[in-house]
Specification:
Helix content: 25-40%
Radius of gyration: 17 Å
Order of helices and strands: HHEEHEEEEEHEEEHEEEE
Mean pLDDT: 76
Length: 200
Amino acid sequence: MRVFPLPTGLRAPLWVAAVATMALGATGAAAQQGAQVFINRHPLPADTLQLLERTFSTRVPPGRYWYDRYSGAWGLEDGPTQGFTIAGLPLGGPLPADISKGGTQVFINGRELHPVDVQGLARLVGPVAPGRYWLDAQGYTGYEGGQALANLRVLAQSLYRQGAGVGENYGGGAGAYGNLNTGIGIITDGEGGAAVFTRP
């Protein structure tokens, strides 16, 4: 699943909190027993883990994760993006370029994308040229050092407007829409938060 969030002001929607908890750690009991959580190859201190668990009222499994603090993207070490959470969390060290074992020559915020990431992005924007790009937590993207060229959220929404999609309205502005031709869709929470997804 590929997910690109949008900010919701000072308070995060519930789905962001849920994704954040999946991204960030180990269980409280596991942390006390010496279970390890690594983010960007740096161990997460037990007190930080406990704070995250209390804040999000959940337990997070031990593991090795990567986290992009500029976009909020996260995944398992050596793998593609698993989802997005709150951007800007002071977790782990710098994002290593090789943390996803990419081999694609496509970099976003310094991380070389995994082939699955590039395939999902290509479904949304077309062919992706090798190069260095940035992506922010609002979905804006462009070449490193340059201005925004596109907003991935807007691109995902336009797929539905082209008549190739199906959608559901959950009330209050919340809904889900998917393009049957591309497998790309968007889920909105009605409060400004959104997630773009792809299905195989």
